Predict the 3D structure of the following.
Amino acid sequence: MTRRREPLFGGAGRPILTERLARALRTGERPDSPPIDWIVLMPFFRHFAPRELGLAIAGFLFAAFATPVSAEPGKTFGAETFTLDNGMQVVVISNHRAPVVHHAVWYRVGAADEPPGKSGIAHMLEHLMFKGTDTIAAGEFSKIVARNGGSDNAFTSQDYTGYFQNISADRLPLVMEMEADRMSNLEFSEQDFLTEREVVLEERRSRTDNRAQGQFSEQIGAAQYLSHPYGLPVIGWEHEIRGYTYDDSLNFYRRFYAPNNAILIVAGDITADALRPLAEDTYGRIPAAEVPPRIRPAEPPQLAARRVVMYDARVANPEWMRSYLAPSYRTDEDHQAVALDILSTILGNGPTSRLYQSLVVDRQIATSAGAYYSGGSYDDTRFVVYARPRPGVDLEALETAIDEELAKLIEEGVTEEELERAKFGIQSLAVYSRDNLSTLARIFGVALTSGATVEDIERWPDLVEAVTPDDVLAAARLVLVERQSVTGMLLPEEEEAS
């Protein structure tokens, strides 16, 4: 069974999009260009394929070139945006240093939008999107991209699903045709579905079930959210994966994969004026569809602290973690999300952070310690503190030391010096992110699928600059409340026996 939208068809019943695409794949020529014979001399940026929230953008930042990119005055990234007639938002971030582009389609649907009892179906569909269409045979999509000198991948999180290609700018029309084709004309058989379900089960075994840390992380998430679907793993529970049917995947595709539920982001050697006709001629031909609103179960107020203690024979080094419920940028009614980003930097980002200095350097009771805040979530999110003890140090002693550091911060606040150092680091990352096309597009994709606007993203460094020590203290007192936390301990199995 396949799914198409009739307006894509020409008079003879063949999809309009695929005529030029088929010709391009047959002859090797770029759509609307003469045939060319060429070799890609420049390696493309490394891509990433996160399967979980993965919202800590800083981990992916690096400078790919030596010279900074210029942006319009008052804009950090110099992004331009427009909307197609069918409701698809388009974002263009020009960077003309090299003739390459990062082309990505982000869908406003993720694991938290799945029907009850079908956890992981969004990720399952991500796999099936590579199965093919009338024009592209199953498994050929990535091979075509590679033959044209590019790389591609996809990713699913709680709030979005994305597909991207890094490729030479003169091959951009080709990948736009291909991506638009599978947005409307995806085909997969019952056997394709069954095979891919086994692939997903194996992925779950290798990434989660065969790793004590993976299972521990799942248990912490499940304990944190009593009602909200963020408590479900992105890849899905094994018993629910086994229960998927062919129709489950097809119905999910039909329900959410539409241009008015997607964002096209192109970063690199292209301008908005040049991209607009290409977007209109590919994605613009796909009619809008009725997409259900994002209505998710609300998480009730947490009235008591929760604890998860897990023992596993595979654990060589114990781990300690505490997760606090926190507002995201979208749900932040008290305007404290930016301060929480700064708080996580001061508290636990790198060797100069408070937790690292106190626990690893001064007291020497931990081998690592840190904190992070996943503010890019669509709904209320988590602020996490974590540490690993040195051999011979028990987790209770480590937890006491962490609680002392948190209590000190809540009592005394942060210094001007700490604040300025954190601001400088965060703003520098924003600037250097312009040197990596994939990272740049990811910043916009995460924010836009979570309800932000291009203007919000452009002015984010100014919001960082405006934060005061009192703002950070207020954010810490709002979030670092043990009553709204889950504390987890991962221990070797022998400790359970003793």
